[in-house]
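Saturday, quiet lab. Running sequence design on the structure tokens for the scaffold JK sent over.
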């Protein structure tokens, strides 16, 4: 999947926890969150399912509507500032815990990031004494780049803070958007030099920082840690086809009933008729697809002896 564009073979998805971070902040602000979730066609029970995946386009619509409603351009910074490593999924956290150096931590994050956000890419470019850690983020047509770019960079900063200190900030940071941070943002960033209208979001760090061993590693076995990165070499979820993306995007709606087919078509970026034709070519129908998802979720719940 190319960043910034939905293809016929994928539906960009994000783990619900990363949208809940914004929802928690919006609730404290007094935003009518449930109303806006319904307006954006997101599941209103999203708070109860942080590990599920939701459609990226609908998440951007929801957050964009809230930005317009509240008139706050810094929502990405305000919500993203609160992100911690505990907001990563269990697999990501387990793998990061076992990384011996910060360099391997960032490499691990880049490899597994699609377990958190299928439209996100991360990498490093070393230039002598400085290393640039860059992030590309899928943004739907008309989406506001500012919404997610700081949260994405804060995720990397949180990994580095594990060794560099809880208050560590990079000397410089770049944003794809035409960022005009408020005075409040500038005050919290202190001496960080900011650059806007970049080809990618990034932070610069001293290269020497990456080679430092992590002194607070868990004593968990390496065998246990490998569970978190076993999906595949690129960090894909085990199911990575178009119909699997659609299935994952529909799961959060099941507690509220049968998700309408026009919602599924919207998430797939197509018309209802085109969706039906495509499913027919796969020798299934929308009703059969939803029933299969419901059955698989029921089996999963029945196997959990704690429920």
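Result came back. Writing it out in full:
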């Amino acid at each position: 999947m190319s960043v910034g564009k939905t293809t016929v073979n994928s539906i960009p998805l994000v783990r619900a926890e990363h949208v809940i971070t914004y929802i928690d902040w919006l609730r404290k602000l007094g935003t009518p969150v449930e109303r806006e979730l319904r307006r954006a066609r997101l599941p209103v029970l999203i708070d109860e399912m942080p590990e599920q995946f939701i459609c990226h386009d609908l998440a951007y619509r929801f957050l964009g509507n809230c930005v317009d409603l509240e008139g706050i351009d810094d929502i990405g910074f305000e919500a993203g500032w609160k992100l911690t490593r505990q907001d990563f999924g269990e697999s990501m956290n387990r793998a990061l815990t076992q990384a011996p150096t910060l360099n391997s931590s960032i490499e691990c994050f880049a490899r597994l990031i699609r377990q958190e956000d299928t439209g996100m890419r991360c990498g490093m470019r070393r230039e002598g004494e400085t290393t640039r850690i860059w992030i590309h983020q899928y943004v739907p047509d008309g989406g506001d780049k500012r919404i997610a770019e700081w949260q994405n960079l804060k995720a990397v900063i949180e990994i580095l803070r594990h060794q560099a200190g809880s208050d560590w900030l990079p000397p410089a940071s770049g944003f794809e958007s035409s960022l005009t941070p408020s005075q409040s943002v500038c005050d919290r960033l202190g001496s960080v030099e900011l650059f806007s209208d970049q080809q990618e979001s990034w932070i610069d760090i001293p290269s020497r920082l990456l080679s430092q061993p992590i002194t607070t590693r868990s004593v968990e076995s390496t065998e246990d840690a490998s569970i978190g990165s076993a999906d595949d070499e690129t960090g894909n979820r085990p199911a990575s086809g178009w119909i699997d993306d659609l299935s994952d995007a529909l799961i959060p709606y099941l507690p509220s009933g049968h998700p309408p087919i026009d919602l599924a078509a919207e998430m797939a970026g197509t018309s209802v008729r085109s969706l039906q034709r495509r499913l027919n070519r796969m020798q299934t129908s929308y009703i059969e697809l939803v029933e299969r998802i419901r059955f698989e979720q029921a089996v999963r719940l029945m196997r959990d002896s704690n429920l």
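Notes for JK: Strands lie at 13-15, 53-55, 120-127, 130-137, 172-174, 193-195, 201-206. Residues 10 and 243 are 8 Å apart (CA to CA). Ask whether to fix the surface positions before the next round.
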